[in-house]
Specification:
By secondary structure, the chain is an alpha/beta fold. It is built from ten helices and eight strands. It is globular and about 50 Å long.
């Protein structure tokens, strides 16, 4: 299990002030960190990547569409062009950092709704933009993993099945989808059952409790979820994504109005230890079967 931690826990932008955290995460047993890519330049992320590697870690990246002027599903070609330019920038930044995967809901801006289900044209526009982005990413050795969100955050891609259909339409080997335990808990009839049929399309995994807090303190079926991934042969990243109230802008965007864990240190240590223990049990069960 390649286990990472999303650094949005502490900051929407990774600066040298956050670098001491890298050694702490390495000591706690993490394999990597996920860099939020909300602003900055490739040159900045090259520096960040060096600090990540110096700590003995690897990295992935997370990007979103910043606003309605950047929307891959838009009927306006200029808006789609702006969305592609933003995605190209994010790909360049994570490539400069030496990152392996760029993930996130980079198909639509958060909280923008049409009042209707997605149209065939909107989906086709996303496919068009993402295929172009995947070509750019492939040239830099980066894999893309688009993230379906729950219906309260977007409307075009809410389920694993909807995201898988986009992956199939894009038809690029470095383009897949992200499976997120928090969103699947809201949207899927069977959050675990959807994994196996779509595992070939899942290129990244976010691990978060049902309340968006620390794994192991809610009702996500962790043993069954991790077992479905392991039995299916998933060998990509599993990244803890949990949010607190320390960053008002992130808390507002993710609708976090209360604390979901006692401290960041508890999340870092206990979240890691819980997931590693779950994975070891699966390995032991396989070895003795």
């Amino acid at each position: 299990m390649r286990l990472g931690l999303n650094l949005l826990l502490w900051s929407p932008v990774v600066t040298p002030a956050l670098f001491p955290r890298f050694a702490q995460l390495k000591a706690a047993g993490y394999d990597g960190v996920e860099l939020p890519l909300f602003e900055g330049t490739p040159e900045h992320y090259h520096m960040v990547g060096e600090a990540v590697r110096d700590a003995g870690l690897r990295c992935t990246g997370l990007a979103i569409m910043p606003d309605a002027a950047h929307d891959c599903s838009s009927g306006d070609a200029a808006v789609r062009a702006a969305a592609l330019a933003h995605l190209t920038w994010a790909i360049d930044c994570i490539a400069a950092a030496g990152g392996e995967v760029l993930c996130g809901p980079f198909h639509q801006p958060l909280g923008v709704f049409s009042g209707s289900p997605p149209t065939a044209d909107e989906v086709a526009h996303v496919v068009e933009v993402h295929r172009a982005a995947a070509r750019h990413a492939a040239a830099q050795g980066v894999t893309l993993a688009v993230e379906p969100l729950n219906r309260f955050e977007c409307y075009l891609m809410n389920t694993v099945e909807a995201a898988a259909a986009v992956v199939d339409a894009v038809q690029m080997p470095n383009y897949g989808m992200l499976y997120d335990t928090f969103h699947a808990n809201i949207e899927e009839k069977d959050p675990v059952g959807v994994i196996a049929p779509h595992l070939a399309r899942i290129g990244h995994v976010h691990l978060s409790e049902n309340d968006r807090g620390m794994p192991g303190q809610g009702h996500i079926p962790w043993a069954a979820t991790l077992s479905a991934l392991r039995i299916g042969g998933y060998d990509g990243w599993c990244v803890i994504e949990a949010f607190g109230r320390a960053l008002p802008e992130v808390a507002a965007a993710t609708r976090v109005w209360r604390d979901f864990f006692h401290s960041d240190e508890e999340l870092v240590t206990s979240g890691h230890d819980f997931l590693r223990a779950q994975w070891r049990r699966l390995e032991d069960a396989t070895a003795t079967a």
